[in-house]
Write a structure and sequence with these properties.
With 490 residues, this protein is α/β, with parallel strands linked by helices. It folds into 2 domains: 382 residues, ANL, N-terminal domain (Rossmann fold, 3-Layer(aba) Sandwich); 75 residues, GMP Synthetase, Chain A, domain 3 (2-Layer Sandwich), CATH 3.30.300.30. The strands form 7 sheets. A 5-stranded mixed sheet has the order 11-12-13-14-15. A 4-stranded mixed sheet has the order 2-1-10-9, sandwiched between helices. The chain has a 4-stranded parallel sheet with strand order 4-3-5-6, with helices on both faces. A hairpin with a 2-residue loop joins β1 and β2. The longest helix is centred in the first third of the chain and has 18 residues.
Length: 490
């Protein structure tokens, strides 16, 4: 489906923009002819020098990053996105584990790529735009010109094969390499295209980190719908990117949505007043959006919809529709595709089955068997419910449930939501004390510690006795976060 769509745009819309890149104070388009030509060139290089290989990709968001990933998908290689913020040791361990034979990287991470290569015997490296890479590209261009046949003259690739391995971004557990097929990514693309209005001529951003499945799947979704993508390598420039590229809508994690809300609020009473044009909608995923962030964006005239999924489900489980009445803080409606099934287990766990589900954890058959039962249902590890209209409501991670000495159970996420509604509270994590098994909260706030403690005491007065927070710690700085915007726990 992606291959056929890219080929169609190549033939029918060769001069239309696939990407928009910054050049000084201007926005320069990269059209579909060049994009698909560049994919074909990298496909030739992969097939000649590393056929069927696992190819790691490391760098900030860029046009070249997406060319490399798409070339892996269409050439039979396996793309292995790498989180560039990791240490060289950690990256080397991951690449050695999956057996990567090549590492493509941006100029910004040349030194780290060199350090990784020293730790992984036989690992070939190539920098985007480097002299070494240009040599191979020039050879490929000459060869393709002589042959007059490229990847676009072939049948589509096998949608069932492993196309990419994405490491989980779990907040507490050791990352695992999730094997995803091209069909899994395409399932996200098709389901999201049904739920959200996207059309040729729209503009959005390639802003989510591309080493995370949400960023990858969202980018392919927008490309498949003919949306021109502004390249934004630095999330700190999110407002500038919205303004520069005249963005109609965006896929964001809640942390970025909150940053955007603050930037707009400092410049106007609405997105239209601040930016000079409307933002039709924002979809948040990767983590739960707080009610406060939702209300801030809504007050700015931006429709907020949410989606839910995991790396293991190619980010696909549920998604809100912009045509529906807003349901604040829900995770949207279950996937609209009939082949994607969802349900809640007897223990209250959200389950899904279908082409969205991973093939497995690479070289971890026992952990795969624990995650996917004999009937094919993937166990998300998230507690929740699905209402009569198909909306999904997530109450928390089963692994985070606090079991008190009385036997009563508490979902920390519910208390965290109440804490985040308190004046000045910016971040909150609730857990059970290891010794007393009582409820403990750690808070980062923009108001004095005394104000936080008074607010927590007032909140406690409204809660059942067993839910009350017995110990409160006020942090002096924000919590560290994963690339997808989740607070790192433990």
């Amino acid at each position: 489906m992606l291959f056929e769509t890219f080929k169609k745009y190549r033939e029918e819309r060769p001069g239309e923009a696939a990407f928009l890149v910054s050049s000084g104070d201007r926005s320069m388009p990269v059209d579909w002819r060049r994009f698909t030509d560049d994919i074909a060139t990298v496909c030739w290089i992969i097939e000649k020098y590393a056929p069927g290989a696992k190819v790691a990709i490391m760098g900030e968001n860029s046009y070249e990053w997406m060319v490399a990933h798409a070339a892996c998908l269409f050439s039979g290689a396996v793309a292995v996105p790498v989180e560039p913020a990791l240490s060289a040791d950690d990256i080397a361990k991951r690449l050695s584990f999956v057996g990567a034979s090549a590492l493509l990287h941006s100029a910004l991470y040349s030194e780290k790529a060199h350090d990784v290569a020293e730790r992984v015997p036989g690992l070939a490296t190539g920098g985007f735009g480097s002299r070494k890479t240009d040599f191979f590209i020039n050879a490929a261009v000459k060869a393709l010109g002589f042959l007059r046949k490229t990847v676009w003259h072939r049948p589509p690739p096998d949608p069932e094969r492993t196309a990419t391995m994405v490491f989980t971004s779990g907040t507490t557990s050791e990352p695992r390499a999730v094997e995803l097929s091209l069909k899994s990514i395409e399932t996200f693309v098709r389901s999201t295209s049904l739920a959200l209005p996207m059309k040729q001529g729209d503009r959005s951003l390639m802003l989510l980190p591309l080493h995370h499945i949400f960023g990858i799947a969202a980018t392919y979704t927008m490309l498949a719908n003919g949306v021109a993508l502004g390249v934004c390598p630095d999330f700190r420039r999110i407002y500038d990117a919205f303004e520069r590229f005249s963005v109609n809508f965006a896929f964001l994690v809640p942390a970025l949505a909150d940053i955007l809300a603050g930037k707009i609020e400092s410049r106007g009473k609405s997105a239209e007043e601040a930016l000079g044009q409307r933002i039709d909608w924002i979809l948040t995923g990767g983590a739960n959006i707080s009610r406060r962030t939702y209300e801030r964006l809504t007050a700015l005239g931006i429709k907020v919809v949410s989606g839910y999924g995991l790396t293991e489900t190619a980010a696909c489980f549920s998604m809100a529709r912009t045509s529906d009445e807003p349901r604040a803080c829900s995770a949207g409606r279950v996937c609209a595709l009939p082949e994607v099934e969802t349900k809640v287990s007897e223990s209250g766990e959200l389950l899904t089955r279908g082409p969205n589900v991973m093939k497995g954890y690479y070289k971890m058959p026992e952990k795969t068997a624990l995650a996917i039962d004999t009937d094919g249902w993937f166990h998300t590890g998230d507690a929740g419910r699905i209402d009569e209209d198909g909306y999904v409501w997530i109450t928390g991670r089963l692994s985070r449930t606090i079991v008190l000495s009385s036997g009563k159970k508490i979902a920390p996420e519910e208390l965290e939501e109440k804490l985040l509604a308190l004046p000045g509270v910016r971040e909150a994590v609730v857990c059970g004390d290891g010794e007393t098994r009582e409820v403990k909260a750690e808070i980062y706030a923009s108001v004095p510690d005394e104000s936080v403690l008074r607010a927590v005491a007032a909140l406690n007065a409204t809660l059942p006795v067993y839910q009350r927070i017995k110990r409160t710690i006020v942090r002096s700085e924000p919590f560290p976060r994963t690339a997808s915007g989740k607070i790192k726990l433990g």
